[in-house]
Amino acid sequence: MNATLFRNVRVLDCTGNPAFAGSVLVEGDRIAAVVPAAASLAFGNARVVDGQGATLMPGLIEAHSHLSFTDFAQSVELGFIPPEEHTLRTAQNARRMLDAGFTSCFSAASAKPRLDIVLRNAIDNGDFPGPRTLAASPEMTVTSGLGDVRLYHMYRENFGVVCNGAEEFRRFSREMVREGADTLKINVSGDDGVPASRADTTVMTETEVAAVCDVARAHGKRVAAHARSAESVKMCLRHGVEVIYHATLLDEEATDRLEAQKDRIFVAPVLGHLYTTLNEAGPWGITREVAEKRGTGRELERGIESMKDLKRRGVRILIGGDYGFAWNPVGTDARDIAHFVNLLGFTPMDAIIAATKLGGEIMGMGNRLGQIKAGFLADLLLVNGDPLEDVAILQDKSRIPGIMKNGVFWRAPDPALVGSARH
Fold first, then answer.
1. Cα torsion 298, 303, 306, 312: sign
2. Distance CA 233, CA 269 (A)
3. How far is Cα 322 from Cα 318, in angstroms, rounded to an integer?
């Protein structure tokens, strides 16, 4: 059995306890032992990695990934990519995410029906490098909703599959179950980037949401929802949606209902996309003035206050910021950790836990992923410096000399580049 001993490391185990000097032994794909520095640890013929004071922490987990999004400026561009090329670009994105320290991804939608599924299977089979992935369907939407780019005079498509009425949603959900999706994605609210259906509108009906949730329950799948408006969030909660994205325009009733179901649901506010659209999308024609007219600034402000309130109430809030746009590219997802600190007032520890421990929970692997504990999967990052002092160092690949997934190094640490003083 392959074994690796990390010694002389600062262990950030993401249980919520303070980091400590210690050693961690990995055997096969699991963490075999975690001990403080003063304790002895038998390690046999294990490969020894001297961390020289660097931080050892769990791999990062993205709760709102779009590995098949291609850093586009307009979503309709996704419809112009043939499936074969799109598959290759999706695999390239998976490699970029692993290279950035993300060892797991919970997909928030696939840009074509089978892209996520094919990628997940290829990664699991060892054909391509990438994070372990839970595969999603494309975003099911309605006519005029987010993802409907059709024109009367021209056929166009993008990441959305348009369904109207409960039976169309039911049929497509069943097709995605047949193909092997782990998660069914629905666009219950509008979006301020869609003039016909703004963010505060609720575009799906009770029966449409219920149809998708019925299929998910029958087959042991989960439903994730684009839900910005207060009413869309309440509709999701009524029908058992487990993963709620955005939730930025809440009212008191929606907030209370989220709190009442906090042990069942996950919320990912997707603030990264709002932030970059407001502040960094000018080169692609979305100046701050344009973004403000769309309501982006207003939604970001309300979303910040909503998340602060939900955090106080104990709701699980996870990172994930719609990375995959030109101004919010795939592989920069660790920016969300800093957004949680700078915008939401999270402590660095809480922000990192949102990207590790809570990520293990949304992956359905909370008892074996996202923390450094004996018996957990050996998804580990060796980080030069202390992320608890500055979470932004997790955005710098040069500060992460070691990346391990399932007990195997994706990036094996070079001793010359490892150490707390090597910044």
1. negative
2. 12
3. 13
Spatial separation of the C-alpha atoms in residues 138 and 376, rounded to whole Å: 31
Distance CA 225, CA 188 (A): 6
User: pLDDT 10s per residue in the chain (423 long)?
Assistant: 799 999 999 999 999 999 999 999 999 999 999 999 877 777 788 999 999 999 999 999 999 999 999 999 999 999 999 999 999 999 999 999 999 999 999 999 999 999 999 999 999 999 999 999 999 999 999 999 999 999 999 888 899 999 999 999 999 999 999 999 999 999 999 999 899 999 999 999 999 999 999 999 999 999 999 999 999 999 999 999 999 999 999 999 999 999 999 999 999 999 999 999 999 999 999 999 999 999 999 999 999 999 999 999 999 999 998 999 999 999 999 999 999 999 999 999 999 999 999 999 999 999 999 999 999 999 999 999 999 999 999 999 999 999 999 999 999 998 887 876 565
Going by C-beta distance under 8 Å and a sequence separation of 6 or more, which residues neighbour residue 14?
57, 58, 352, 353, 356, 357, 370, 371, 372
Pairing of strands 20-27, 132-134: unpaired
Task: Please state the φ and ψ torsions of residue 215, each to the nearest 5 degrees.
Answer: -65, -45
Helix then strand count (H, E) for the chain reads 12, 17
pTM of the model: 0.96
Judge residue 99's burial from the number of C-beta atoms within 10 Å of its C-beta, 0-12 exposed, 13-18 middle, 19 or more buried: middle
Of 319, 324, 302, nearest to 391 by C-alpha is 319
